[in-house]
Amino acid sequence: MDSAYEIVVNHMQEHLGIDPATVTPETTLEDLELDSLSILELALILQDETGLKRLDDGVVNFQTTVGQVAAALEKERAAAAASPSADSASPADSAAPGSATPGSSPFVPSSAGPSPAGTSSAGSSSVSLASAGSSPVEVSSVAPSPATAGVR
Amino acid sequence: MSGRDAVAVTGLGLVTPAGVGVEESWAGLCRGVSTAAPDPELAGTPVTFSCRVPGFDGDALLGARLSRRIAPFSRFAVAATKQAVADAGLDPGTWEPARVAVILGVGSASMEGFEAGFEHLRAGRVEALSPYTLPRSVPNMAAAEAALALGAQGPCFTVSSACASGAHALGVARDLLLSGACDVVIAGGAESGRTRISAACFWKIGALSGRGDQPELASRPFDLDRDGFVLGEGAGVLVLERTADARARRAPVRAYLAGYGASADAHHVTAPHPEGRGAVQAIRTALTDAGLAPSEIGHVNAHATSTPMNDVVEARALREVFGPSVPPVTAIKGTIGHAMGAAGAIEAASVVLSLQRALLPPTANLDKLDPAVDLDVVSTRPRHLRPAPAVSTSFGFGGQNAALLFTPA
Known about the structure:
The complex is a heterodimer.
Chain A (H helix, E strand, L loop, with lengths): L3 H13 L19 H15 L15 H17 L24 E3 L17 E4 L5 E3 L14
Antiparallel strand pairs in A: 1-2, 2-3
Helix pairs in contact in A: 1-2, 1-3
Chain B lengths: L6 E10 L2 E2 L1 H10 L4 E3 L10 E3 L6 H5 L1 H6 L2 H16 L12 E6 L5 H12 L10 H5 L3 H10 L5 E4 L5 H15 L4 E9 L3 H9 L28 E10 H6 L6 E10 L12 H14 L8 E3 L6 H15 L6 E2 L2 H4 L6 H15 L1 E2 L22 E2 L5 E7 L3 E9 L1
Parallel strand pairs in B: 5-6, 5-7, 10-11, 10-14
Antiparallel strand pairs in B: 1-2, 1-8, 1-9, 3-4, 7-8, 9-15, 12-13, 14-15
Helix pairs in contact in B: 4-7, 8-14, 11-12
């Protein structure tokens, strides 16, 4: 099986036309000059093509690096493999800061409660991004909601 | 400078089933061999063939990022626009962006984009809807994406009048130029109508040819055995400038857009008026606009879709306008099918090329002229002609008609 990083880069090339030679694990989506729509598109494609359900919940954002996207994907793949029903869980269940494992990038909602499953793609992208072992970093203030920015 | 040569065509761009590029398209049109072939993307619909643009490499022509973001009709629009701007010798790096307009005709929209979106809705997965579903699919994006790609900041919109959209866009563009609203107009039409929903809908109203066993014989304008049109795609783009401006910058003048007429049948949803009332009015308006008599017209590039009704009514209308002096007529849809919103612009470009090269491309598949068509239709091989003013006709569902009149440079 391709690594999560390869999957991400391949989808970026196929669907967004991004030259893999311009991408490293440290490259942020902003570095790649993706706009809010293309970031949301990427999240949806990864979610759709991999059968995973939670990647659009703000995990992917302007400041996210490609490596972090891949780590989130890897984590979801592992969770899905361990529990076939995990797909229906709410985003917060498996992404609390305390559940971080070394090398992965857990993501948690910044709002008080978990987002309702299935209604979260458009409006609930206000999430916290945490590096493994560190405090969650609030990124929603610098990253506009993917579904609203860029729409006239 | 008289009104007749006030607006010059200074550049052409073509993406057609006959080829990508003006020379490729022109060579295919002059071969006069139908490009219709089985279309796997139409599988599951009643009509599974179409005329497709061959070898269109969007990544190479537009860059991978743009090509993969936009819908097929916008890809064709941007590619043809870039060709036309280069052909006109214009440099987007040095022009005055606010004075450059982009006016394109689109008959429908990205049907395939909406089809994909509806699949998600039907499956109860609204969250999976691509954020690009709307901005890639709505018809205005052909003009918007072309303006984005070029940095053109003047008037920019899409004209929609079904199968006459490309011709109306050119007429509107000319008038914008004459009004002084801009100095350059990039105008034409773009469409990719070969989608499953399009095929099914046009089949439902009996507009499409049913020759699935011999698709290469399906598009046969004016032929006695015609049974409908063939779905096509592509884009045609012309650069228009006031002739004085074109001369001042020593631009190549390919022809003049000397006349434009538009009308409505006000008769029926899809059928033309039986006497071609609106068609006659549009052509006469274009002649009056150009200050020319019918006898001064050297050829007609006909709308001629290959539907039983259109072709016979159009023939009647041409007889009505031109009387005994009806000039030679050609119908390029026999070769490239019906590109709908792009058709009028592709045909306009074909007229300009005919005037430049003194050659009329033939009408493909015209084996037996319908006796009800009392016209001299060019068939089999290209015909030489003396460059003279020429008319292109376009008629859309809803009875929306346009006629364009070009004169030689």
